[in-house]
Design a protein that fits this description.
The complex is a heterodimer of chains A (273) and B (302). The model of chain A has no long low-confidence stretch (mean pLDDT 90). Chain A is mainly α. Chain A contains twelve helices and no strands. Chain B has 302 residues and is an all-alpha fold. Chain B has a domain of 170 residues: MetI-like (MetI-like fold, Orthogonal Bundle), CATH 1.10.3720.10. The chains are: A mainly alpha (273), B mainly alpha (302).
C-alpha cells in the first residue's frame, strides 16, 4: 500500500486533470487581463504579446486603489473589534454558570439562524436616519454586529475546554478578573483567535450586499462595490474588466497563497463546533 | 498549587465571583449584536405583515397578505423553486465532487499538496468577482464555447445565460466550482481520522478499495458529511452575489433566488412589505435546515 504503483500514476494524471479544470477559469482571467483589446488571437491560448495597459486603465478609471484601501480599513477595524468584543464576551459567558450567562449565550446563538436578508431593510433605514449612509462606519458596525454569534460561539467552545487553573493561580496571586483575562486567558486562546481572524477577514473583505446598499452612491466604496460599478460602466470591454477583477481579487489570493496552511486550517477547525 | 488543593472551596468560589465581576465584558458584543441583528430582524419580520413601501410615513397592517402574494406572484414561485433546486443540486454534486477529490488527494500522489492548495483557492475569492468572471466564460464568445468549438462540439456551443432552462444550471456549476474545495477540506479532515492500520487490516482480509471505503471510511466520515451538507444547504438558500453578477435574476426572472427577489422588491420596486415576507420565508427555510442538522448531529453523538 505504500508504494507508488502504476495505479497511483493513473490517479495522479486524473487528479492533475481535475486540478487543471478547476484552474481553467482563473487561467482565462489572467490571460485576457493581459491581452490588448484588439488582440484577435484565440483566447484559450496564452497571450503572446502581454500588455499592462488594461491594468493601468482599470486602476485609474475604476478608482481601485482607494477602494482597496477602504476594504482594508473596513476589514482591519472590524476584525480587531470582533476579536476583542467576542473574546471578552465569551470569558464570563463560558466561566459563569448563572442563569443570565446561559440566557445571553443562547441569545447570541439565535443569531446563527437569522439570515442577513431579514435585518437588511430595517437596518438600511436606521443607517439612513443616523446619516451613516455613504460612511464606512455603517459597514463596520454591521460587520461587527453580525459576526458576533459565530465568533462568541467559537470562543465559548474553546474556553469551555480550557481548564481554569491558570486564571485561578493568577487570582490567588491577587490579579483582578480583568487582569486575569487580559494577561492569562486572551493569550491562551490564541489558536481560536487565529480562526476568528481568518474566517471574519475573508468574509468581510468579500462582503458585497451590505456595502452595495450603504456605499454605492458615495465616494467611499469597498472593492466589491467598486468592481460592480466598474463592470457596469465598461460593459463589453472584457480585457479591461478582467484586469479590474484580477486587481480586486489579487490581495485575497496573495494572502491565501502566503498563509494557505493557516487559512485552510481556520476554515476546517471553525466548523467542528 | 498546594494551597489551592488544600482549600478548594473558597478559592473556587472566589474565582467565580471574580469572573462574575466582569459581566460587563459582554456589553460591547451585545450592543453591536442587538443593534445590527436582533432589533432589525424583529422589525424586518414585523414589516412582513404590512404594505409599507419603505418611504411613506404610513403603513397598513395587511395580515398574511404578503405571504399569499409570494405564492400567487409568478416570480415568487420561480424564486422559491430555484432556491430549493440550487440548494439540493449544489449540496449533492458539490459534496460528491468534494469527496472524490478528497479521496484523490489523500492518496500517495506526488501533486497532492499543490492540488489541495489550488482547488481550495476559489473558496476565498470574492463571490461577486467570481460571478463576473463566469458571466464572461458562459458568454456566446466566451471560454466555455471556445473549448467546445476547439474539440469539435460546435453544436453544444450556445448562449448559456440567455436560456431560461440552462441559466440556472450555469449558476449551479459556478457555485460547485467555487465551493467544492471547501467540501474537500472538511472531508480531508475527516479522512485524517481514519487509522491506517484498520485500512491495512481490511485490505489483508481481502476487502477491495470500494468495500474498504464503504465499510471502514464512510462511517467515520459521518460528522464531516453532516457539516458539509449543512454548509452547502444554507449557503445555497442564501445565494445572492453570484446570481446578481451573472444574470441579475434574468432572463425574465428565470434565475431569481429568494435573495435576489428580496433585493429587487425592497430596493428597486419599493415593496418593503413583500421583500420582508420573502425574508421571513427564507428564515423559516434556514431554521428548518438547521434543526434537521441539529437532530442528525445529536443522533450521531447519542
Amino acid at each position: 500500500m505504500h508504494r507508488y504503483t502504476w495505479r497511483t500514476g493513473v490517479l495522479e494524471a486524473v487528479m492533475i486533470l481535475v486540478g487543471a479544470i478547476f484552474m481553467f477559469p482563473l487561467y482565462i482571467l489572467v490571460t485576457l487581463a493581459f491581452k490588448a483589446p484588439g488582440d484577435q488571437t484565440n483566447k484559450l491560448l496564452p497571450t503572446v504579446d502581454p500588455t499592462f495597459d488594461n491594468f493601468t486603465q482599470a486602476w485609474q478609471s475604476g478608482a481601485l486603489g482607494g477602494a482597496l484601501m477602504n476594504s482594508a480599513l473596513v476589514t482591519i477595524v472590524s476584525v480587531t473589534a470582533i476579536v476583542l468584543f467576542s473574546a471578552a464576551a465569551a470569558y464570563p459567558l463560558s466561566r459563569v454558570g448563572a442563569h443570565w450567562s446561559k440566557f445571553t449565550y443562547f441569545g447570541f446563538l439565535a443569531g446563527l439562524l437569522l439570515p442577513a436578508q431579514l435585518a437588511l431593510l430595517p437596518l438600511y433605514q436606521t443607517m439612513r436616519d443616523l446619516g451613516l449612509l455613504g460612511s464606512l462606519w455603517s459597514v463596520i458596525i454591521v460587520s461587527v454586529g453580525s459576526s458576533m454569534p459565530f465568533s462568541v460561539f467559537l470562543y465559548c467552545g474553546f474556553l469551555r475546554a480550557l481548564p481554569p487553573d491558570y486564571e485561578e493561580a493568577a487570582s490567588l496571586d491577587g490579579a483582578s478578573a480583568f487582569r486575569a483575562f487580559w494577561s492569562i486567558v486572551f493569550p491562551l486562546v490564541r489558536p481560536i483567535t487565529g480562526t476568528v481572524i481568518i474566517l471574519n477577514a475573508v468574509a468581510i473583505w468579500n462582503e458585497f450586499l451590505t456595502p452595495l446598499l450603504y456605499l454605492s452612491n458615495s465616494s467611499h466604496k469597498t472593492i466589491t462595490v467598486a468592481i460592480n460599478g466598474f463592470v457596469g460602466q465598461y460593459g463589453a470591454q472584457w480585457n479591461l474588466i478582467f484586469a479590474g477583477i484580477l486587481i480586486s481579487i489579487l490581495p485575497i489570493l496573495l494572502a491565501y497563497f502566503l498563509l494557505q496552511k493557516y487559512i485552510v486550517q481556520g476554515f476546517a477547525s471553525g466548523l467542528k463546533g | 498549587m498546594a494551597a489551592r488543593t488544600l482549600t478548594p472551596g473558597p478559592s473556587r468560589r472566589r474565582r467565580r465571583n471574580r469572573v462574575s465581576s466582569v459581566w460587563w465584558f459582554v456589553l460591547p458584543a451585545a450592543a453591536f449584536y442587538i443593534f445590527a441583528v436582533i432589533v432589525p430582524s424583529v422589525r424586518g419580520a414585523s414589516f412582513a405583515f404590512t404594505d409599507w413601501n419603505g418611504i411613506s410615513p404610513t403603513k397598513n397592517w395587511v395580515g398574511l397578505e404578503q405571504f399569499q402574494t409570494i405564492f400567487s406572484d409568478p416570480y415568487g414561485s420561480v424564486a422559491i423553486r430555484n432556491t430549493l433546486l440550487i440548494a439540493v443540486a449544489v449540496t449533492i454534486i458539490q459534496n460528491v465532487i468534494g469527496l472524490l477529490i478528497a479521496l484523490g488527494v489523500n492518496s500517495r500522489i506526488k501533486s497532492r499538496g499543490i492540488l489541495r492548495v489550488l482547488i481550495f483557492a476559489p473558496v476565498v475569492v470574492t463571490s461577486i468577482a467570481v460571478g463576473f468572471l463566469w458571466k464572461n466564460l458562459f458568454a456566446p464568445d466566451g471560454g466555455i464555447n471556445e473549448i467546445l468549438r476547439a474539440v469539435g462540439l460546435d453544436g453544444l456551443a450556445q448562449n448559456w445565460l440567455g436560456d431560461a432552462d440552462i441559466a440556472i444550471w450555469a449558476i449551479i456549476v459556478v457555485v460547485i466550482w467555487q465551493f467544492s474545495g471547501y467540501s474537500m477540506v472538511i472531508f480531508l479532515a475527516g479522512l485524517q481520522g481514519v487509522p491506517e492500520e484498520v485500512l491495512e487490516a481490511a485490505a489483508l482480509d481481502g476487502a477491495g478499495p470500494v468495500r474498504r471505503f464503504w465499510s471502514v471510511v464512510r462511517p467515520m466520515l459521518a460528522p464531516a458529511i453532516t457539516i458539509n451538507l449543512m454548509l452547502s444547504i444554507i449557503g445555497g438558500f442564501k445565494l445572492f452575489d453570484q446570481v446578481f453578477a451573472m444574470t441579475k435574476g434574468g432572463p425574465g426572472g428565470a434565475t431569481n433566488t429568494i435573495s435576489t427577489l428580496i433585493y429587487q422588491n425592497a430596493f428597486q420596486l419599493g415593496k418593503f412589505g413583500y421583500g420582508a415576507a420573502l425574508a421571513v420565508l427564507l428564515t423559516i427555510l434556514v431554521a428548518i435546515a438547521a434543526s434537521i442538522q441539529y437532530r442528525l448531529l445529536s443522533k450521531q453523538e447519542g
